[in-house]
Amino acid sequence: xxxxxxxxxxxxxxxxxxxxxxxxxxxxxxxxxxxxxxxxxxxxxxxxxxxxxxxxxxxxxxxxxxxxxxxxxxxxxxxxxxxxxxxxxxxxxxxxxxxxxxxxxxxxxxxxxxxxxxxxxxxxxxxxxxxxxxxxxxxxxxxxxxxxxxxxxxxxxxxxxxxxxxxxxxxxxxxxxxxxxxxxxxxxxxxxxxxxxxxxxxxxxxxxxxxxxxxxxxxxxxxxxxxxxxxxxxxxxxxxxxxxxxxxxxxxxxxxxxxxxxxxxxxxxxxxxxxxxxxxxxxxxxxxxxxxxxxxxxxxxxxxxxxxxxxxxxxxxxxxxxxxxxxxxxxxxxxxxxxxxxxxxxxxxxxxxxxxxxxxxxxxxxxxxxxxxxxxxxxxxxxxxxxxxxxxxxxxxxxxxxxxxxxxxxxxxxxxxxxxxxxxxxxxxxxxxxxxxxx
Length: 439
What we know:
- The chain is an all-beta fold.
- It has three domains: 1-18 and 37-95, no CATH class; 114-264, no CATH class; 281-439.
- It has helices at 130-136, 146-149; strands at residues 3-17, 40-54, 62-76, 81-93, 99-113, 118-126, 157-167, 170-177, 192-199, 211-223, 226-239, 242-253, 261-264, 266-279, 284-297, 303-316, 322-336, 341-354, 367-369, 375-377, 381-397, 400-411, 422-433.
- The strands form three sheets. A 13-stranded antiparallel sheet has the order 1-2-3-4-5-6-7-8-9-10-11-12-13, covered by helices on one side. Strands 14-15-16-17-18-21-22-23 form an eight-stranded antiparallel sheet, with no helix packed on it.
- The longest helix is centred in the first third of the chain and has 7 residues, at 130-136.
């Protein structure tokens, strides 16, 4: 079955109730209207409407739907005190598997701004992470985030009290909550302590001014001996038309008494460089491009997978031709078989291609001393090597260790073909250490 969404419509309606307006002549047509004096009450409606049709099914099923719907009521009582009341409509499935639209309370909170950068929130209000993540990643209009989907964070709002402080380009949000999510009734005496820190380390005027780094930690309990601890680290970059985020999540989660469930996530990272840099083959300034990509994946607490890729290019400033370039993919896999047995594999492919060298000013070919008093033209060259290293470790007790390893270097003419590789060198090694205790 294949669903094709024909229509996804977002409607936003805002209007306000405030004191009577007084006629005045605006200075310009684009003048910003003054902020009305408190008290002020505003209403807002946000709805996500959808039409879906199953184009490849015989019965031709299609339906209109409401995936999310809010009715916001905000009241600014004074310049520093405000309240918010928001019911939320969303699809739910009941015990009989019937799908219905359910209404529940999303916000019922009091917000007091103590100083210009510090506010205190009380009641059913936003928790430090999910609402913040939604402000960066707009995906949540389509579905829940990773931590929410796994049930690690039960919802973007909860009953409790919190403090949010902003200074410069740093924001801190810390709160104590029931931990049930969405205003559900508290079941026991245990609470959740949530905290988030967001740093924007670069100047706002720089090219990296839109980079932010955030860390979140939740320390809570379902009940006695049933922990719910969640740690998240996320980096993000946001410009008007592009938003990129990378996130790593680690959690110990035990909603049942049986055992703790350790959960792991996946993180991505990347970096690049473009500019002018010295190039030492032809001893001249060249245009340089670097790219680094990688990931760290821990599907279980015993396995760790780290793929990386590095690209490097040097181009002649005079005509833009390539002087030298390299592509280096690398894979590292670690497996903790038991407490005493550990296995590791590292594979790295290094593909380098260099053009025939030329003098930067004259463009004439460069001759290189061969070490025997003779010179030869430095023609085009390429090198493709594939290095593989295996390690087996056995440590039955502290001080007693056995290592066994094998490494091999393979070469080939055409990069990344792996069809006619030849072994350039290989080797084994063994290491045994034994700790003797003399009494």
